[in-house]
Each structure stands twice: as C-alpha cells, then as structure tokens.
Design goal:
With 486 residues, the chain is of the alpha+beta class. The protein folds into four domains: 8-75, Roll (SH3 type barrels); 83-287, Up-down Bundle (Dbl Homology Domain, Chain A); 307-401, Roll (PH-domain like); 413-485, no CATH class. Helix content is 44%, strand content 15%. The protein is flat, with a radius of gyration of 27 Å. GO terms for molecular function: guanyl-nucleotide exchange factor activity. Residues 402-486 are annotated as: Disordered.
Length: 486
C-alpha cells in the first residue's frame, strides 16, 4: 500500500478508550486513517493527529462520496501533498544519517588518537578511565548497528521505510543497556582525568585533537577529553527531536507513523533516565571524595563503595537529610545553607542498628524506623513507596552479604496487573521490545504491552444490563496472549 495514493479509512462503530498509552481513543462515528492492519484483531491508525492501536472489531470500512467533507468535519485531516511530505521526510532522514556518521567518526577519532594511546601509556593507573573507554567502544558498536539499520530503511521505497521501527528494535535492549552502563562509569572516569590534569594536558596537546580557539591558543587537553566523553549524552538527546520531525512529515496512513511517534517518546525517556543515573553517580562520587565539614577522618572513601544513597526527611521536624549506605556503615549527611556542600551528621555500624518498615498513617507515609544501642529511634520518610522498600530491604540484609552495588530493581509489572482474558492484540516485534524497555523504566510513558487491569465488579452485586453491553469485547492482543502461554 502506498500511503500517498491508497488510504484506508474506517468508521468507529463504538466508542473506545485505550488503557495503554499506545492505544487510540475515539468516539462512535470517528473516521480513522489505518496505518497498519497486518493483524486481524488489532489495527493501528491515526485519529485527530494521534496514532495508536485499536480493536478491529470496533470499526467498519468507511465509504463516502464526499470523503473530504467528512474528514474536514472533524475527526482527522489529510496532511500536505504527498510529494512535499516525501521531500521533507527525505531531508530529515538525510540529516539523521549524516549526523550519526559524524558522531561515530568523532568518537572513533577520539578513541584512536587519544584515549587508547593514553591508556596504553599508563597501563597501571587510571582503571576507571580504562573501563569507561571500553564501554565507549561498546556504545560506538551499538550506534554502528543502528546506523546500518537506518541506512537499510533509507534504501527502501518511501512507503516501506520503517525508521521508527529500527529505533524501537534497538532502544529496548542494546541502546538502553550500553548507554546506562556508560552513564554509571562516566563520573569516575572523568574524575581520574582531573586527578592527572597536568599529565593529561601535556599528552593531549601533543596530538592533533587540540584545536585553536579565537585567541590562537590551543584548548586545554582535559577540556578536549571531557567534551569528547560527553558526546554520547548529547547524541542521545538529539534522537527524540529528529524522530518527532520525521513523524511530522509522515502521511497519516504510513505504516511507520506509530512506531516513529513511540520511538521519539522512548528515546526522550531513555535520555532523561541516563541523565538521572549520571547525576546520581556524580553525587555519590562527590560524597566520598570531598572533605566533609564535621568529619575529621579525611574522606568517606575509606568506608568503601557507595551501595545506595538517597534524600529523605527525618522526624519530628521533617529535617532534610541524605543517608548514604556503605557495605558496613550508614552515614547521615545534611546540606549547607547555600546547598554547596555536605555536612557530616553521624555514622553507624550496620551490625549495631536495626530497621523496620512503618505502616502509613496520618503523621507519615513511606517511612521506616532505625534504632540501635547507640542510636536513638529515628523515623525516616522516603519520597516514594519504592524508595521505602529499597531502604528496608538493603538495611535488613546482613552486612557481609550486601553487594557493592545493585541497581534499583524494576517493579514486576506482571504482579501488579492482572491479565484480562478479554484483551490481547497484535504488536510488531519492535513494539514488544520497546514495551520491555519501558517496563524497566520509572517512566511517564507506560508500556503498550502492559496488561490492562481486570474489570472490577461492584461490591453491591453485578452491574445492571445496559445497551452498552452489546458492544463487542476487544480481542486479546497477541503480546498478552504470548505471555499467558508462557
């Protein structure tokens, strides 16, 4: 089907309100432009500028001698001429490919001309930098695979290009995993460079990486390296805008329209997640490397690696505090009035304190209690129920068995949501992978593979029958059906 010449329109027989963010909402009589109808049970379509999935048994083919009038009266509008759209879409795709090639060229140049020789020059030191460089090489490998996929789509006829689908296929696994690992290693890698600033400047200035600024002087080598090592973050931020622009120039009936829209949201969410992870690691590094006011034993680095760290409030005055968990100690910190540095408050051996969760009440929510022989009872308020559970679980473990670091585990979606045997649809493989990625994320964008909640019967008895009961039940989406079978 060529979306520029053959557009499939359907009319809604019933109103439908999607339960997942990738499902369409419409009222009875809405005219929907179909974008994907490969499956017999659930189709993808565009209505009122939004693309999403809907049950195929809620619609019927739309035939009218005056399509334009029906469309303009409301429910959707055909976009600009197909030729103009295709031209702009080609420009966006070329910009995406050119910028991706340039990004990879810059990264490989940085690796070959400076980072690898620098590590080889200092094999016995700078271990955090070595791990960061190895991870940067893996990130570059993932982007090369992504570039290959997008180039392949660019070679297809315009109606068959699935650029959004290519991003969805990689965002759930490779892109998300490798970028998150890079974000976790980045702060320590950059810190090791800063600790050897003089040597780094001398080494880098001897390469061809140092460009001259407007005053005719070369940029410091440390600045060149830190700028280069931040390229993955900046590149990740650009994808959402490029995909949104690509989506804007896709015809309403194009098969990639929904995937491009979802991919833009997922990449924006991934970028935000990676930034948050990096800021958390930078905060943890600051805590263990800087000298704290009120702490007379140097730095907290002697206590080991930070296992977990978070911002809490302490009763009875709701005082803001940071609590930092080490393998064998718990440290309580406050922040200076200017929010410029941490102040040491107390340190506790984990073997001498106990922790228990507190039920929510009128005085506090998401709280747990700390107590011990050398610690007065302390009621700690967390920002969320998940944070409360994380702290109680970690503080309840015996210190010798506590891991050096464990990323917060994602909530088990299957436990929280009952699978309804009345609802499952078809999703492309890329869509399923994207759903898995989103289930691992505390995201504002819920997974489209997430099962809707089962309908609840009122306590007073069954609901009285109404004409709405004649409406057909949406079929089960294939992704849910596959999970039920497993």
């Amino acid at each position: 089907m060529d979306p520029s010449t053959s557009v499939i329109l359907v009319e809604a027989l019933y109103s439908f309100k999607g339960k997942n963010n990738d499902e369409l909402n419409f009222k009875k009589g809405a005219i929907i432009t179909v974008t994907q109808n490969d499956d017999e049970t659930w189709w993808e379509g565009t209505y009122d500028g939004t693309t999403g999935w809907f049950p195929a048994n809620y619609v019927r083919p739309f035939h009218s001698s005056d399509n334009k009038g029906s469309l303009s009266n409301g429910h959707t509008e055909l976009q600009s001429p197909a030729g103009e759209q295709q031209m702009y879409r080609a420009l966006v795709l070329r910009s995406l490919l050119d910028s991706e090639r340039q990004y990879l060229a810059d990264v490989h140049h940085l690796l070959s001309e400076c980072l690898r020789p620098l590590i080889a020059h200092k094999k016995s030191s700078w271990e955090p930098l070595r791990r960061l460089v190895e991870q940067l090489e893996r990130v570059a490998g993932v982007h090369e695979a992504l570039l290959g996929r997008v180039e392949h789509e660019g070679e297809q006829p315009s109606a068959d290009q699935r650029v959004g689908g290519a991003f969805l296929a990689m965002a759930a696994d490779a892109l998300a995993f490798e970028h998150r690992q890079y974000c976790l290693l980045h702060p320590k890698g950059v810190c090791s460079l800063q600790q050897h600033q003089t040597e780094v400047n001398q080494f880098v200035e001897g390469t061809n990486l140092c460009e001259e600024n407007c005053d005719g002087q070369k940029k410091p080598g440390l600045l060149v390296l830190t700028t280069g090592l931040s390229k993955p973050f900046r590149r990740l931020q650009q994808y959402a805008g490029l995909l949104q622009e690509l989506h804007r120039h896709l015809p309403e009936a194009h098969k990639d329209r929904g995937d491009a829209h979802r991919a833009a949201k997922i990449m924006a969410d991934l970028s935000a997640s990676c930034q948050s992870a990096r800021r958390q690691k930078e905060l943890e590094l600051e805590v263990v490397t800087q000298e704290l006011a009120g702490y007379d034993r140097g730095t907290l680095s002697a206590l080991g690696e930070v296992v977990f760290m978070g911002s809490v409030a302490v009763l009875p005055d709701h005082t803001d505090r940071y609590i930092v968990l080490f393998p064998h100690h718990l440290v309580v910190l406050s922040v200076s009035a200017r929010m410029s540095n941490f102040i040491f408050q107390s340190e506790h051996n984990l073997s001498e304190i106990s922790c228990r969760s507190l039920d929510d009440c009128s005085q506090y929510k998401n709280a747990f209690e700390l107590s011990g022989a050398k610690l007065n009872r302390l009621v700690v308020l967390c920002q969320s129920k998940e944070d409360q559970m994380q702290w109680v679980q970690r503080l309840s473990q015996p210190p010798p068995l506590m891991p050096a670091f464990s990323a917060p585990s994602a909530p088990d979606v299957a436990d929280k949501n009952q699978l309804s045997p009345k609802l499952p649809p078809r999703m492309p493989v890329a869509g399923k992978q994207a759903g898995e990625f989103l289930r691992q994320q505390p995201s504002v964008l819920p997974s489209h593979t997430r099962a809707p909640e089962a309908s609840k019967v009122p306590a007073g008895g069954p609901k009285p029958w109404s004409l709405c009961d004649l409406r057909p039940t949406p079929p089960i989406r294939p992704s849910h059906l596959a999970r039920l079978r497993t």
